Amino acid sequence: MAETPEQNYANHRRFDPMFHVVAFGVLAGSLLVSLWQLVRSPGFTTAWIFVVSAALLVVLFKVRLYALKVQDRVIRLEERLRLQQLLPEPLRSRIAELTEDQLVGLRFASDGEVAELVKQALDEKLPREEIKKRVRSWRPDHLRV
Known about the structure:
By secondary structure, the chain is mostly helical. The chain has one domain. Helices cover 66% and strands 0% of the residues. The longest helix has 43 residues, at 44-86. The protein is elongated and about 70 Å long. The two termini are 21 Å apart. The relative contact order is 0.13. The mean pLDDT is 92.
């Protein structure tokens, strides 16, 4: 089995060819073809096919967003539990102040640096991407959707 490359900020996003190329490509192509047919032969049937093609593309994106939202909620729970164990008391009492976005960003911070990043996130109101950029010792997650 091939070894998984070390994960970092530059390569942590997941690319799924079946979703990003095949499913999106087929549905986007279908939308364009149905639009072309609608322009060439206006009518109820071609208009309906265009509407259905557009709806399928919307469904594709919504399904992806729903999966990502569930994943973020699980990460939020995991990180709150992790932070309860790792943070010193002054910061532990401030866990509730962290936003979902910040908790997801902290997901990749190693145990040794998470306290410092929590303090920075709270004091500077850092967004997810900025937190991830500040992670020095990346804690990989190869199971993300």
